[in-house]
Specification:
There is one protein chain. By secondary structure, this protein is mostly beta strands. Helix content is 5%, strand content 46%. The protein contains 1 helix and 14 strands; from the N terminus they run ββββββββββββββα.
């Protein structure tokens, strides 16, 4: 209940209401687990039940590194509970690895073959090492993408050449 006093001293009546939107709820099933949920532009924790504004369009995005993200738009009635499932598909990218000499290729510490080679890798950060006996290893980090082929052209340098290049041009006695 509300009391209003009407007088001739104050001609305008001002009221400030803070109305709470009615809620609806989403139960979200995630595959694979461990990604991020973005609800109406804000990151939310992946709890069992999400509270969303009722009678309005809600945008829910699920994303995880190495997978294609999915976005779904849903409108719910006040008090309604609805299930929403996300099943992300893995994103892979090609990496074309070449060197000026045949060399071993390591991906994340495991031998995968010799240069030249084209690999299909998940779209997450990978440590690539290219080695050959007597040569300085080439170490790179690559994040493959399905949009374009990542190309690595390693210039292997002999250990002697590498040391000579790193050495000072001249040495002086003090």
């Amino acid at each position: 209940s509300e009391e209003i006093e009407i007088t001739n001293k104050q001609l305008a009546i001002t009221r400030n209401y803070k109305l709470k939107l009615k809620e609806a709820f989403l139960k979200i099933d995630l595959s694979p687990s461990g990604g991020d949920i973005i609800l109406n532009g804000k990151k939310v924790p992946p709890s069992g039940k999400l509270s969303v504004p009722a009678v309005s369009k809600n945008s829910v995005t699920y994303l995880k590194e190495g997978y294609f993200s999915q976005t779904k738009t849903i409108s719910l009635k006040a008090g309604e509970v609805k299930s929403l499932s996300f099943d992300l598909k893995p994103e892979k990218g090609k990496v074309d690895i070449r060197a000026n000499s045949t060399a071993n290729i390591f991906v994340d510490g495991k031998v995968v073959g010799k240069t030249p080679m084209i690999l299909d890798l998940s779209a997450v950060r990978h440590k690539i090492t290219i080695t050959k006996k007597g040569y300085r290893p080439v170490r790179l980090v690559v994040i493959p993408s399905n949009k374009e082929i990542s190309r690595i052209n390693a210039a292997l340098v002999s250990e002697l050449q590498a040391r000579l290049a790193e050495a000072p041009k001249e040495y002086k006695n003090k």
